[in-house]
Amino acid sequence: MHPTVLVLCTLGAIAAGQLGASSELLMEPAVPVVEYGGSIELTLKTTCPNITKQSNVETSIRKNVKKLTMEETVVELLNVTEWNPEVVSFYFCYGKREVVPTKLIVYRAPESVELEPVPVLAVGESHKLVCWVSGARPIQNVTVILRRDGEVLLAQTFEQERWDEPVQVTHQLTARRQDNGQSVTCQAVLDLAPHGPRLDSTSAPQALAIYEFPQDPELESATLLETGKTMNVNCIVCHVFPVAKFELVFANQTLNFSVSQDGHQATAAVAQSQPGDFRLVCTVTVGPKVRQKEVTVHVYSFPSPQLNVSTTSPAAGTEVTGSCHLPPGHSAELQLQIRAGRDVLVGWGPSPLTFNLEAREEYDGMELGCYAKIRNSEALTKNMSVWLNVTAEPRMDDGSCPPRQNWTEGQDETLRCWARGNPPPQLECTKDGEPFPAGVPHPVTRAHAGTYRCQATNPLGTVHQNVTVAVHYHDPDVVLPALVAVAVVVVLVTAGVSYRIYYRKKKIRRYRLQQQQRQQQMESRRPPACSEDTAALNGSMREAHSEDGDTSAEGHSDPGGASGLNPGILVLQQRWPQCWQEHEEPAQRRVQPPEGLADAVVTCCTNKNSPCAGVMGSGFRFRPRGSPLPGAAMPRRGLLPACSLPGLLLALCVPATSPFEVTLSGSSSEVGYGGTVLLNCSTSCPEAEAPGGVETSLSKEWVSRGSGWFSVRLRNITEPLSDILCYFSCLGERKRVAFRVLAYDLPQPRLAISKPNASCDEPVAIECSSAPSWPPGLKLRLCRSHRPPQPWAEGPVRLELTAREEDDGAEFTCEAQLSLGNRTLRKSSGTATLRVTYQPRMDDGSCPPRQNWTEGQDETLRCWARGNPPPQLECAKDGEPFPAGVPRPVTRAHAGTYRCQATNPLGTVHQNVTVAVHYRDPDVVLPALVAVAVVAALVTAGVSYRIYYRKKKIRRYRLREREMETLRPARERGRSHRERGSAWHPLAPSLRPRRDTGTRHGTARPGEACFGHRAWLPPPPPQRRRDPMGPPGPAARLLPPLLLALAGAARGTFTVGAWPRVAVVPFGGSVAVNCSRSACPGGNATLGLATPLAVAAGAGGRRWQSFRLLNVSRWSPGPATCYGRCGDARANASAGILVYRLPERVVLEPVPAVAVGESRNLTCRVVEVAPVGNLTVTLRRGAETLRTESFGAAEGSTSVAVSHLLTVGPGDHGQDVTCHAELSLRPHGPLFARAAVPVKLSVFALPEPPQLQAPARLEAGAAANASCQVTGAFPAGDVRFAVTLAERSLNVTVAAVGDVLTAVTTLSPDTPGRQELACTAAVATAARTARRQLHVYRFPAPVVELSPASVPAGSEVTVACRAGLADPPAVRLQLRDADGGVLAEGPQSRLELRLVARREDDGRQFGCRASLAIANGTVTKDAEARLAVLYMPEMAASGCPSNRTWLRGTRQALSCRATGNPAPTVVCGRNGVTVNTGEPELVTRSRAGTYLCNATNSLGTRSRLVTVRVECEWRRCLRRGRAGGNRANQDPSFLPLQDEPTLTERGCPAHRTWVEGERRELVCRADGDPPPSTRCARDGGPPRARGSRAVSRADAGRYVCRASNKHGSAVRSIVVTVEYEPSIGETGCPARRLWVEGTPAELACAASGNPPPHVACAKLGDNQDPPPVSPNVTRAHAGTYQCRATNPHGSALRNVTVAVEYSPAAVSLRVLPSANVSRGASFSVECRAEGLPTPTYGWALPPAPNLRFAADNRSVAVAAAAAANRGLYTCTATNRHGRRAGSVMVRVDESRLVLLASLGSLGAVTAVGLAAAGGYYLKSTACKKGEYNVRDAEGSSEAACLHRQRHDRGEVYGIQLTQDPNTPQPPQCQLSAAVTAATNVPSLMPGPSLSPPAALAVTSCRRRVGDTAPRSGDTGDGGSHSSRGCSSTAGTAPDGQWGGGPVPAAAGSDEKAAALGAAGGGAQAHAEGQIFSITLKPLKKR
Question: pTM of the entire structure?
């Protein structure tokens, strides 16, 4: 390369590196942020290493460069007012200008944040929140947040820039209740971070006001209100928020009310004194929402009716008259009715009503009532009642006093005679002048026969009746002894005849036994025909007969051998498939193959044409493998000869074709209309593809198909009856089967009873109906219990009847029937029961008036009453209660008369019961008979024993004679045994067969031959010297031989046992079964268990094995069979398996509340239990068992239900109902018990609807009371009252007196209108309601307006009468003057009267009366005003006489009255001197002269001259005239007196008495000259108008009468008294009183009236008044009193009910059945006490675990009394007035138990004695039970000889053979034994010698057809020796132990025999299934 080029390249690279070096401009702050209008400093720096010029800023904003250097430039931007200014920074680096744009952020804080106001919102209402943000820049950095308290509602940012316009943010807010009071705010946040500040501004908070008022308020108010009463009204709101504001207005008046704690209810009291319709308005304000509810209340007036009766105590046959009326002024809506008891005497009609009633005797005590009601309203009633006391003279008739009576001598009889009458007559009976009391039991003698004269007397008369009494008597009875004697003779004759028959039969049995032995001997000699194998193959040998005669082998029967029909043969087939069928035909069966042919299959061919039948014949049998064959069996006739095996093999054949079957099954044969059925069709045809199908007209669907079967589904089955055919073809043959499907729709019938709870004589309708059926043609009928059903009919069936007493409890059922071809389908409805209520009834049948009891026995007072509801029966004797129907031990004190009273809510009846108690002396006949029976038993026992003892001696004598003939030396016996060469055993006796019968000791006697052999009995041995050891004692000689004899006899039968007999196992569990066997002689025994269940072997032993059945999950697994084999013998035993499952649960269905007298089903369900046949379900009510039910057997586990129809009474309330399920597996298993959760019974009664008392009209805002009364409700404490007025609930206060509950509430409606007052009384599920209409009105008082109120005389004045706004607006006005005169009248709302005011009108009173018509009544209100007339003073001559004459010496005042308005001031003077006009001064001559009197008021002055003359007294002047001449003319002061007015008592009485309602005038006559004028006015009131008018109580008071003439005036005060009739109110005389026993008794009853009435109270039904104060209250004070207030003007009645409460009294304890209790017996202690309130009971008694208290704690029951129950039982009764206790001592007596034990022992001893005597007697002669006769026993080997080689003589024993009673078949073999007691026989027997005790040899023989003798030489356990035809067994045990060793628990019969023998002389022997007992008894000792 050229060097120049290289240099240039180097310089370019250096320049490029400098230019490419990085440089930048740094600005502080990096992001400038400045407020709008503010300033900011910018500092510029650069990283350029070569700065050629200073950096700077270019911008349109005014700037100020503060520093300018190469390294740094500082620029200040001033007054930044641009929102997006352009700011460019630049610098020079290496001479090049670099420009860097800079972002300047200009911001402005939010100027204002405003949140628009939020109105009041309703819950759920949506509102848009609007927030305005203005002035904030940049808008992209602004976030507007809406918050509700701390909750963020919205946070909004902005994307685009907005200029000069505020930002609006909105959010839709839904109001919630919890939002109330919360604040909503709007916050604007300007966030310039991280380069600038964070500024925020928040709006003023807006508080949320939320309310909720979803619905109108409810106004609860009665629509009827009685005047003068108060009722409560409720205004209720629901779901309001916040608290509501209430306003209640009634009759335009605001009511005072109270608000509930939750603020949802306002309650006010409403009352109104005037009738009419008034509006009640409730106004509720919640937030801005205002809602109103208005009702109209009808206020009415309802006075009580008055009943006047001519007499309450009429005589029978007389007439009772009376009237029922209402007080004057009553409403026309009221109607009256008169009732006599329950009958209507006079129907409803207007007042007054009169009646006439003829008094009868049965009317005594009848209620006579006057009832009042408002027309068309049954709920509003009032009544007044009296009770009649009908008197009647005595009466006696043949029914009450039978004229002829029969008595029995020695008995207690009563003279039955009583009389009727009122007052109750006094009865006196006499006989021969001697008094004889009637009704009192007397012991009857013959002297009592005769005529009695009975006389009944009461104040009304006397009657007589003669009674003739006949006394029957009897002589001593000889019939009974004669009968006893005859019975004894008959018994003795019967016993003799029986014994004769028995003896004859015994001889016959002996003869038959000998014949059987001979026949058996002949059979045993018969030689065998062929070998065992040959006989087994050709079938020529019969099976040995079993005990029951069955000829089958191994339990398989012969199908053809016996009957000959279709005979079968057994064919041997070896591996030939053409002869083998895969499935078994009905005639084929697999059986066990013969011996040696293990692979053979034996098939029973049924084809007669088969070659098998020709070769084999019929009835072929074979023996099982290893089975022994009888050697002497003969071939059956008709079979092939012996040894025909080739012929059998040639007879193989192919079995004939078997018939096939076709089966058809379906899921259901009955389906609903349009249903579906699944069918399965199959065949047994062997062809693999046999053709088949279905023939039907129905729609079908193939489901599945296989070889020989198919399934098809039939759909939409609508035909009533359809036949489906299934067919198959097999081998050319076709078969078919039919299946019938029934399709129907049978609806459930319905049964309706119009009134299930009807009253007597009330119409009831029962209707039976149903929905349509398919196919049509449904018929219905109505069935009634105990009546024939109605005929079938189409359509609804209706039955109408009138309820009667006998209809109570009638059950009705509705049945529906649908006919389908020849089939009829039926359905039934549930059973409905009709309940008829009727009053109690008792007659002579249910409560006999005369009852006879016997002393010492438990008797019951037989008395019960019918009625519905079931009446409560109470019986009492002498005031003491006596329960009916309860057994009591009778004493003589129980005799007397009992008064029984039955009561239910419909009435009360009474019945008197007279009880006569019969008693007699102790009976000695029974002990005498017992003694005779004991003596007879003892005599019989003695005679029997004597007979037995005599026969015993005879038997011993005969046995001793035979003994010498059967004994021979032992040496000869041993030699003979060796000569025969037979098998020998050291312990076996020597036996050899002999053909000759000529020798003495070798002669074969009858019965000796056994299977062709003869047993030779050895002769007696010679006398030898005793062994030094000595022979064993009698016991040792007896026991060992017996043991060996029993063991040898028992080993003849092989047996298998199973334990337990029944194994009990839970489902799915395991159980063990033990199998055991008896001894097997060959020793090759096997033992197993056969069962279909899984088995596991357990522990085992030599002769026993245990097995465990696992997982038993089959309900019926069948028995488990224990089987065993012993050689050729087989045996088995079965053990049953009982599978159970405990109930999963026991459920008692809840029982709803039940009305008294109604029935409810108690249902108990036991779920999944097995076996149900072992289940017992028990329903109990408390301790009482209601129902116990067991069930039949059922397969598997199942659920059961038990129901019981329970009719409840009041006593069932609160009792527990329990259900107990017991699964009893006894005697094989335990007893399991489970119980359901108890259900508590709730019983109630509400027999009558409530009685509602309330006013008919009530003014809005007023208050009145309403009462709701319920009688007979139960339980009273659970009754709930709900009183509503216009559907608003009212607060009530409930008071209880007895069974009467009264709820009182206050009515205070605010809204006018007609409102309904309802009272609902509810208890449990029953509720009854009474309703009344309440008219609520708004009626403001009228206003009287005078315009002007003060007017000058002569001016016009306007008098206006104005009515307020009324509701209803039917107001009528009257403008009245002071005297009641009507000035104007009209229906207008305003009346005006214009008049010119006159001076006399001053003080005139104007009245305004407003009348409002409502609810058939009128409500009035009055208002008054006085007119003031202004006029100048006037001085009339009457007030200021111009001439006055005074008497000198008197005191007079110069009075001068002036009238004027305003009232003027009067000033009098003479000669310019003012004189005193007010005070009287002494009259002197100087006071005579003329005076000037001026009257002045604001209108002017009037003057009057008054001349006063002073005169002396007339007589004084007269005397002076006589004495001094006529000076009258000379001195004017001595003029005579003038006649001034005077008012005297005669013309103006000071006291007046008027009667209310009369018309009277207040007249007052005055004397004077001239005649004065008189005017009277009420003291302080206006003058009374002249004329007469009706007197009212307001007229009473003080009046002032003034008489005036020109000479003066006279004043007199008059007092007017107004008298009126009495009245009794609730305030002064409450209708219900509650007294406490022991407090002072005072029945105060205040009445109003003038003159004050006299109040007298008398108890109804009692003619005597209660004591006033001094005596204390007793229980006799309780009852109803009638108080009568009387004054001269009338009377008033009021009934007062007095309830007396008292502390518990008469606590009585009763022990049932008696206080002396036997041990183990049950008793109860019942506590009774009287008290009100009903007392509660507590107990103090001996502690014991067997106590059970009743639900009400009134009684305690003790089961299985023990000594712990002995002691004092104390019962304490307590109520709020006190407590009282009573005690009774209970004794648990064990002496009775000892007596019973003694009597039982005596009876047992007697029975045992009789049984022993008879047993011994029968045992002496019986074959089955008894000792064998020696002669017969010797001939049949039934006797045994004892052989003992000794020098002295031995003992002879006999064997008693008895049959086990468990095996009913007679024994088929006999057992005989020879028992020998020996010492040592070393020379006779090789081997070990027989040591003491002894050796026993038993020879047994049996005969059975086909029996096989044991083989020679076979030996079994215990050393048995067998020979052909006979078997002998002998046994020994070392060391004195007999029986071959210990006996296992499951040993067989041989071990049992040995054990019994070892126990002391008893054993059992088994022979061919029969069990015998062997008893060895010594017969005679030599």
Answer: 0.32
